[in-house]
């Protein structure tokens, strides 16, 4: 049995009086990669926002390494070891690549601790652009920077919301390669993306949301052996 890192148990959440999540449960174990899937508007970003403490958790429980964290202030949750790559990237436009990487960095000990140099090894394109400002980068470079910035907090869990949205096929491929390398070194990952083929290759486990509820969970092999799933829950 692998140890659970993040446990989401029956969470309910929403915006104002509008309920979006109706008892969502899943977990991410140490070293595992989990995808959160579903059509647009089914609650993926809302689930991530609730985990991060940006939205109140109305019911249910969120545990980090066994400890309840639901409704902790978001700045406390960010300190726990969760690195977020938000939808739309949100790099700092007026800071250089190097400044973006160090602005929110959380140093760690050990030879595998993340440094600017390690991020540049993972994404050599960023090294070439180290003196450019955030708003001078292409979408793909911004996404690499957003991932690098999250890694610089030395997280135990990396959460990516729409990991490759709006990127060219070549840049997408670079992001998928980097994520596979991160997984290979044991980083836990929770990811949303539209590219099913890549998600099936990368992730150990998949969660499908529909109207704020989990309607299917399983492994990549289980997904592949059920040809109706895609049409039922994911096709546009
Ligand atoms: N700020 C908001 N205020 C009110 N309702 C919102 C807000 N953001 C999202 N919603 C609603 O919450 C529901 C779930 O949206 P959410 O963004 O979690 O979906 P998603 O699965 O991440 O989809 P997408 O792929 O489009 O990002 C949708 O009905 C959406 O309209």
Automatic annotation (TrEMBL):
Q: Name one GO molecular function term.
A: ATP binding
- This chain belongs to the protein called ABC transporter ATP-binding protein
What Gene3D superfamilies does this protein's entry cite?
P-loop containing nucleotide triphosphate hydrolases
A Pfam match is ABC_tran
Known CDD domains for this protein?
ABC_TM1139_LivF_branched (cd03224)
Tell me what organism the protein belongs to: Orrella daihaiensis
Q: Which UniProt keywords apply?
A: Amino-acid transport, ATP-binding, Cell membrane, Membrane, Nucleotide-binding, Transport
For the ABC transporter domain, which residue ranges apply? 6-236
Its family remark reads: Belongs to the ABC transporter superfamily.
């Amino acid at each position: 049995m692998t140890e659970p890192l993040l446990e989401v148990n029956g969470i309910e959440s929403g915006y104002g009086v509008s309920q979006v999540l109706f008892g969502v449960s899943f977990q991410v174990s140490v070293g595992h990669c989990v995808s959160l899937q579903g059509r647009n508007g089914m609650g993926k970003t809302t689930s991530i926002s609730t985990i991060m403490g940006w939205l109140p958790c109305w019911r249910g429980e969120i545990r980090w390494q066994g400890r309840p964290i639901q409704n902790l202030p978001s700045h406390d949750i960010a300190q726990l070891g969760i690195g977020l790559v938000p939808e739309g990237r949100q790099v700092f436009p007026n800071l250089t690549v190097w400044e973006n990487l160090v602005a929110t960095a959380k140093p760690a000990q050990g030879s595998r601790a993340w440094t600017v140099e390690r991020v540049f090894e993972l994404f050599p394109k960023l090294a070439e652009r180290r003196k450019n400002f955030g708003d001078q980068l292409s979408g793909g470079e911004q996404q690499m920077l957003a991932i690098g910035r999250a890694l610089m907090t030395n997280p135990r869990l990396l959460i990516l919301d729409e990991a490759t949205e709006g990127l060219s096929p070549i840049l997408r491929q670079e992001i998928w390669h980097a994520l596979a390398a991160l997984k290979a070194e044991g980083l836990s990952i929770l990811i949303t993306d539209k590219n099913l083929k890549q998600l099936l290759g990368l992730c150990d486990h998949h969660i499908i949301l529909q109207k704020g509820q989990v309607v299917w969970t399983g492994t990549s092999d289980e997904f592949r052996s059920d040809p109706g799933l895609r049409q039922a829950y994911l096709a546009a």
